[in-house]
Write a structure and sequence with these properties.
The complex is a heterodimer of chains A (253) and B (264). Chain A has 253 residues and is mostly helical. Chain A has one domain: Orthogonal Bundle (MetI-like fold), CATH 1.10.3720. Chain A is built from ten helices and no strands. The longest helix of chain A is centred in the last third of the chain and has 36 residues, at 165-200. Chain B contains eight helices and nine strands. In chain B, the strands form two sheets. In chain B, strands 5-6-7-3-8-9 form a six-stranded mixed β-sheet, sandwiched between helices. In chain B, strands 2-1-4 form a three-stranded antiparallel β-sheet, covered by helices on one side. The radius of gyration of chain B is 19 Å and the shape is globular. The chains are: A mainly alpha (253), B alpha/beta (264). Bound molecules: adenosine-5'-triphosphate (ATP) and magnesium ion (MG).
């Protein structure tokens, strides 16, 4: 497949998006789509401003951000620690191998009952559920990134007196695996947003709860406001992350 | 700067037997290296040259025999270091930081480390490239950084495992010349593995030939040829061809021996 030049690509993408929104708006206005099932795109900005004015938008976004940040932070730190340790320590690797295989297929949302039993309907419960999906992504990417390191890098470390475990970890394993580990972190940032809404559906205040409320009232335009909010927050976080990643991986480009 | 045992050997190996998993690769290798001596090790591919180097460096425990290496000449040095066939730089470190690798953990302050690394880069003619990423360097430049990294720790013994064999002929010639210049300015004895006989004859004080007396037998030291031509003479090629021919005869007779019945 031939690649379009950048400017043409951007133009085509913009056309695709506005085209769909226009089509949607026009078919609603022409009565081709039932108005109670989907909102009118042109009503979304007003609805957004209303949510903003009432202070609801900021409140639920801040609440979700706090679950999200805590969940992503804990999941990432644990996932990377366990993944890297398993890749470097054969004993630990063997000890955790079956456990990981057993727990891995369980979707984060299946943990909701336990989250409520252990933590109640609290912010901690939401953060816990978010951290599970993030954990597995980071665990697997960092494990395989460290496993893929060329043994010759370690031999160089040994030759130059950096053979101790801490030195090898700090001077070879982490920098050499950094591209993979950062890729996992980035995927985890996305995964976190996917579970944040679901984790809030059972009554913990946040974007998810607000969406549930709105759908109960058939206020589909409010639902769409928060869908777009999540998309925007994801784009923002992803963008900031890419900036950091570029800097950390300067040696690669 | 005199070493403690300036007259004794910096490296001594006695009756080494080396191998992997019950299979003996090299047998009965003994070697003594004097300070600042340049010993070349030649032999066919797979004969065990790299294995010998790793055993001499203490990276591979011998099946039999022992190796003794003299201790570092000063606290801020290491007793040995190594240059590999591929540069093996860390791509995530800038050139200067790569040269500093072996200095980390030695009792040197950060400015002292930078200073020493910069000196070594200057020695290999790359003083301006310290801030670059390794991937932006040519193959020859990267190999020079590898040499600077090895020299930075002021080793008593410098092991070089076919350091130039991955380079093109022109760069190889140039680096060979640079290495023989560099020798005058370093304290290190050099053990240099190569399968290029001319290279061995050009650079070394002594060439040790490894070979198999018979196929399916472990390799041994077939012969050791001292080279007493002055460096300048070698570069002028006077008598150099004779030297290479002598060495080739030795290696030739060793390979011939694997085909013919040994003469009794
Ligand atoms: N880690 C290892 N495990 C088992 N066998 C090995 C190992 N390393 C080397 N060998 C074997 O030991 C023999 C000598 O290998 P070595 O790498 O020392 O050869 P070499 O002389 O350096 O060859 P080359 O010129 O191709 O580099 C070979 O037969 C090789 O297969
Ligand atoms: Mg080899």
């Amino acid at each position: 497949m031939k690649n379009l030049p950048r400017s043409k690509r951007t133009l085509a993408s913009a056309c695709g998006l506005t085209g769909l929104v226009l089509l949607w708006e026009l078919s609603l206005r022409a009565g081709l789509l039932p108005g109670n099932l989907v909102p009118l795109p042109s009503s979304i900005p007003a609805e957004f401003l209303a949510e903003l004015r009432d202070g609801i938008w900021l409140e639920v976004v801040l609440a979700s951000l706090s679950h999200y940040s805590i969940g992503v932070l804990i999941g990432s730190v644990l996932g990377i620690s366990v993944g890297v340790s398993a890749a470097l320590m054969p004993g630990f690797d063997a000890a955790q191998s079956w456990l990981a295989r057993l727990l891995r297929p369980i979707p984060p949302l299946a943990w909701i009952p336990f989250a409520i039993i252990w933590f109640g309907v609290t912010e901690t419960a939401a953060a816990f559920i978010i951290s599970i999906g993030v954990f597995w992504i980071n665990y697997f990417t960092s494990y395989s990134a460290v496993r893929a390191i060329e043994p010759s890098y370690y031999e160089v470390a040994t030759v130059f007196g950096q053979g101790r475990f801490v030195d090898r970890l700090q001077k070879v394993s982490l920098p050499a695996a950094a591209p993979g580990i950062l890729g996992g972190l980035r995927a985890g940032l996305g995964q976190g947003w996917m579970t944040v809404v679901a984790a809030e559906l059972f009554g913990i205040p946040g974007i998810g709860q607000r969406m549930m409320e709105a759908s109960g009232l058939l206020a589909t335009d409010i639902v769409v406001v928060y869908m777009l909010t999540i998309a925007a927050l994801y784009a923002l976080f992803d963008y900031l992350f890419i900036m950091v990643q570029r800097r950390v991986l300067r040696w690669q480009q | 700067m005199a070493t403690v045992n300036a007259t004794g050997p910096v490296l001594a190996a006695r009756h080494l037997q080396l191998g992997f998993g019950g299979e003996v690769v090299l047998d009965d290798v003994s070697l003594e290296v004097r300070p600042q001596e340049f010993v070349a090790v030649v032999g066919a591919s797979g004969v065990g040259k790299s294995t010998l180097l790793r055993a001499l460096a203490g990276l591979l425990p011998p099946l039999q025999g022992q190796v003794s290496l003299s201790p570092p000449s000063e606290p801020s040095s290491r007793s040995w270091s190594m240059v590999f066939q591929a540069p093996r730089l860390y791509p995530w470190r800038r050139v200067l930081a790569n040269v500093e690798l072996g200095l980390e953990g030695l009792p040197l302050s950060r400015p002292e480390r930078h200073q020493r690394a910069r000196e070594q880069l200057a020695l290999v003619g790359l003083e301006d490239l310290g801030g670059r990423w390794p991937r932006t360097l040519s193959g020859g430049q990267q190999q020079r950084v590898g040499i600077a990294r090895a020299l930075a720790v002021k080793p008593q013994v410098l092991f070089m495992d076919e350091p130039f064999s991955a380079l093109d002929a022109i760069t190889r010639r140039r680096l060979q010349g640079e290495l023989s210049q560099l020798r005058q300015r370093t304290e290190a004895a050099i053990i240099f593995v190569t399968h290029d006989i001319e290279e061995a004859a050009l650079l070394a004080d002594r060439v040790m030939v490894l070979g198999k007396p018979e196929t399916r037998q472990p390799a041994r030291v077939t012969t050791t040829v001292p080279i007493d031509l002055a460096l300048a003479k070698r570069q002028n090629r006077a008598g150099f061809t004779d030297l290479v021919q002598t060495l080739e005869r030795h290696i030739g007779s060793e390979t011939a021996g694997t085909q013919q019945e040994p003469q009794s």
